[in-house]
């Protein structure tokens, strides 16, 4: 396999020296170039292929945001990471559409290596070069126009309340995913995982949400024609139900809290790739959804045949670029076919797989990938979990 090429950009030579030192152990695996300015970075990219750019934000002449803007434009497939100081929260908000991930300086070497290694591991999830380019170019997910408007109005009103904003955002998959990504990014340095959208909105705060909505337009209202047959509201309801069911299954299986939260979050985001397919492949995707009655393959298999990957891998790839943890990515990527994953024990993947099957209400007796569930030793509990989820749904109605 080719060596990955990383490009580090910072105007302070000491910072670059520090990075060089802390990444020394990786020099046999990665090719690394260190430069002092945006102009030099672009010159390097013009001459050689680069896989990841890690840039400082505040630099004279061309700042990090300007550099990443150029990179996004000319080299959309390149992964863009910002490494900036703790006090630059405002700058982070400005660059939220430009960078895939934000890391804070001074950066722990282990954290940085881990973030980069995770990014490279994404190749295993989505190998298709064309799709990778499309997904890396996505900066905002489509939202329902009415909800976008409600958020706008609320943040601009004189007595805007964070609670109300949180309630509005909690009704839209695109907005919720972006907020969860930001709060769970390494930049926020939280030691626990945030899966609850209302908690996430409160953590970001009203000012940050205001900036996101009004100045960066991070929430994009979708064009209805583009999305065609995709049932937006139905998808959101299904995402919420899958998250809730996955959490129930994990609790019933006596899993630790952290894993329960991971399964909930992965459940919420498991079908996010459908938004990406709908926006980028409008009419072709419509053909896939509208399969003739004689079609025997599942929708995700038809997607694989039409696009080279299904919404599961595409969604997992985007969430990975946005910095979500590996365990969650596997649960998203293999939610239809857990047997093809490397995961041989019960955890978020099995919980999300079952939760998805339960909510789609496949006929009784059909309990997901029975071979896989047998292999990981939980098949005998499936009926009880299915009942538990049905009871849960009854309670919510
Ligand atoms: Fe799915
Ligand atoms: Fe699903």
How does this structure look, described?
With 397 residues, the protein is α/β, with parallel strands linked by helices. The chain has 3 domains: 4-125, Rossmann fold, CATH 3.40.50.2300; 145-221, no CATH class; 224-396, Hypothetical protein af1432. The protein has helices at 13-22, 38-47, 64-74, 89-94, 109-125, 129-136, 145-156, 162-169, 173-183, 197-204, 206-214, 224-227, 232-252, 257-269, 273-280, 282-289, 299-307, 311-321, 326-333, 348-359, 370-375, 382-396, and strands at 4-9, 30-35, 52-55, 79-85, 101-105, 142-143, 220-221. A 5-stranded parallel beta sheet has the order 2-1-3-4-5, sandwiched between helices. It has a two-stranded parallel ribbon with strand order 6-7. Helix 6 (129-136) crosses helix 18 and helix 15 packs across helix 16 (282-289). It is globular and about 60 Å long. The N and C termini lie far apart (53 Å). The mean pLDDT is 85. The chain binds fe (ii) ion (2 copies). One fe (ii) ion is lined by residues 238, 242, 270-271, 356.
